[in-house]
Amino acid sequence: MNTKVVASVVLMVGLAVVTSPLFAHHGAAAFDMGTPVVLKNAVVTEFVWINPHPLIKADYKNAKGEVEHWTMEMGSTVSAQLIGWSRTTLQPGDVVTLYVWRAKTGATVGRFNKVDFADGTTMRDTQRGADDGGRTDGNVRN
Amino acid sequence: MRKTCAGIIAGVAGAMFLSALVAAQGDAPRSPWKYYPEDARANKGDGGPAPKRDLTGTWAGESSGAGVERLVPPESPPPLTPLGKQLFDRNKAEGANVVVAESNDPHVKYCDPFGFPRNMNDQIRSMTITTLPNRTFVLLRFMNIWREIWTDGRALPTNFARGRDAHDPTYNGYSVGRWEDDYTFVVETTGIDPATWATESGYPHSVDARVTERFQRKSKNDLTLTMTMDDPKLYTRPLNLGTVHFRWIPSQTFFDFTCIPSSVQRYLKEMADPAGKPGGGAR
Predict the structure, then answer these.
(1) How far is A106 from chain B (nearest CA, A)?
(2) Which pTM value belongs to this model?
(3) Which one is the CATH code of B40-276: 3.30.930.10, 3.10.20.30, 1.20.140.10, 2.40.128.20?
(4) What whole-number distance in Å separates Cα of residue B107 and Cα of residue B112?
(5) A-contacting residues in B 38-77 (Cβ below 8 Å)
(6) CA distance A22 to chain B (A)
(7) What is the ipTM metric for this complex?
(8) pLDDT digit string (tens) for B267-279?
(9) CATH number of the domain located at residue range(s) A29-142 in this protein
């Protein structure tokens, strides 16, 4: 086992310790948690700061040039605030790259994973923000 | 040896990473109006002996982010009577095989109050306890619910059926409490609205259910709550609803979390239904 692998395991365990079972609410049974869909250069149309889950709405132009209208949910407002989110983190017109665990129905809805901003920073979801779909409540901007 | 060294290095790196996280959180501007779960998490140990006959204060539960673990979950499977099983089978709780769109949980669908006893065993974020000479109040931050527990020696109502002396069932029922000893407060509750679920998983209860809670303050920092429900129509014996643990919050501050019906309707229409029903609601 090389050092990187060991370090990764330790970090994931550490994150689990830091985050604990925080704010469990709705599960992920509806979503394909295999590999997130990447919506590069998506344009935010609305950031709906509501409970039980804030909704990120964005338009994404696919490989065929068609515009897809996406909606994705994230952790609750209270848990998101604890890691740096606010109702103004995303604003209409922002051009970002969104990572989302798509619904098994195939609809353009899903569970938010993370967002890459134009300035190179990233923000993640609380409940499903890790690259494997696990928790990352400890991550603010990284 | 090489593996051992690698493990040590990785462990140190992990500790440094975690320290950096905590430090980063510590550097951020702080407000006395905000709750910081790391503060509650850092409040290690029992804090000394528990004060006698005193549960007063604000406590962090398992969904507080403070690392508070549930001690015992509600027993599963529940010991249902045939009628109990019939009612339980009607309740479709969200879970590994039931998506939000398919659930008929009245809270998930309509923001209906959990009601008691579910509000003491599901979404346990924080609880504040305060007292008057003749009553103890339990204030729950999730949905901003308050329960009233009478301590003046009155008897519980028992007639929730018909007649002029009947009492109307309520979401939180009717509760009386007494100190069993200096550290154990026992609460009995009757008259709970049977439309509510007893647990997140959809355990039913009838209007004749009687719930017993035992709050035990084991130290300044530790409070446990053990619940049982006696409901002979639906369960063959008293049901163990589990034990939840609470930890003292040094700042005594917590956030609220309210379910807004219009927000839930929007969430279901624009997110949960398209995600859970093929072709349903997709834009």
Answers:
(1) 8
(2) 0.83
(3) 2.40.128.20
(4) 4
(5) 41, 62-69
(6) 5
(7) 0.80
(8) 999 999 999 876 5
(9) 2.40.50
